Amino acid sequence: MKRAVNEEIYYVKQTGSVRELLNIQMCGITYPDRNYEISREISNVACIEYIEKGMGIVEIDDQTFYPKEGDSYFLQVGTKHHYFSARENPWQKIFINVSGGLLDSLIEGYGLKNIYFFKGLDLSKEMRHVAKLAKENTEDCTEQIICILNQIFFKMRTHIKCTDPTLGVAERMKDYLRNHAASKFKIEKLCQYISRSESQTIKIFKEAYGITPYAYFLEKKIKLAKDMLLNTNLSVKQIADRLSFADEYYFSNVFKQKTGVSPSKYRKKS
Q: Is the pLDDT of residue 161 over 80?
């Protein structure tokens, strides 16, 4: 991994308990350097970056983006990152590196999972504010930075909805699947709901969220099963019936594939 020679890096003072909620690893400003390059195989940190000048190349998993002045990008935890300056016009950018459970909740809440590039999204004010807080504060300013991150994610979400008309359709599908998670999955019903063909339906959803409608539906169904196992006295057979599985054996097999344990063992472990 190479870092820019000319870079300002700031660290936020955080208490132990706050850091567990949101770990702000570092933030700062990268100044133009044609040799700047960073690679992470399976990243344990998320990076929010705004390009003030110049341009660069960002590779995340199997996607490649070419952010330039005025663009923002969001590298997420659990993905492969490789990004570097354009040699002829290296970038100047502001960055925040964060991780933690609150970050995961914000990504889920704002519908930003697997959405990485925001062309023309100006985050300079928010990013500069975070850098200023980190540079000047000797006290824990995590609470203030959380507020700014909410502003950043709100702007990302609003920007995507304005620039990608299919996102509204994908969001409607997501709500539909979540509300029908106890029923059987029927792709034709979902297609009718948004008035699209099966191939269009799957493509729109996967481009928005990185998984197929059925995979998301099954995630929600397994979550319901976990809640029932932990919070009710229903038998495994009764839960299978309520969640529209063919029988308790099929339910148990699917549950074990997704969680690593059988429903009965999950209930005992918890």
A: no
Structure tokens at 130: 């975070």
Q: How far is CA 43 from the centre of its chain?
A: 13
**Bridge partners of residue 47, in order along the sequence:** 75, 97
Taking the CA atoms of 78, 105, 69 and 163 in sequence, report the sign of the dihedral they define: positive
Alpha-carbon gap, residue 37 to 1, rounded angstroms: 6
**Two structure tokens written together for 44:** 């344990």
**Beta carbons within 8 Å of 267's beta carbon, 6+ residues apart:** 229, 230
Select from 99, 96, 94 the least CA-distant residue to 122.
94
Q: What is the pLDDT of residue 259?
A: 95
Question: In this predicted structure, what is the pLDDT of residue 5?
Answer: 62
CB 124 within 8 A of CB 94: yes
Q: Give the length of the chain.
A: 270
Distances in Å between the alpha carbon of 203 and those of 169, 196, 213? Answer: 11, 10, 9
Q: Mind giving me the DSSP string for 222-238?
A: HHHHHHHHHH----HHH
Average pLDDT of 188-198?
91
Burial of 195: CB neighbours in 10 Å, binned 0-12, 13-18, 19+: exposed
**Residue 46 structure tokens:** 């998320």
DSSP state of 32: P
| 148 — pLDDT class (breaks 50, 70, 90) | very high
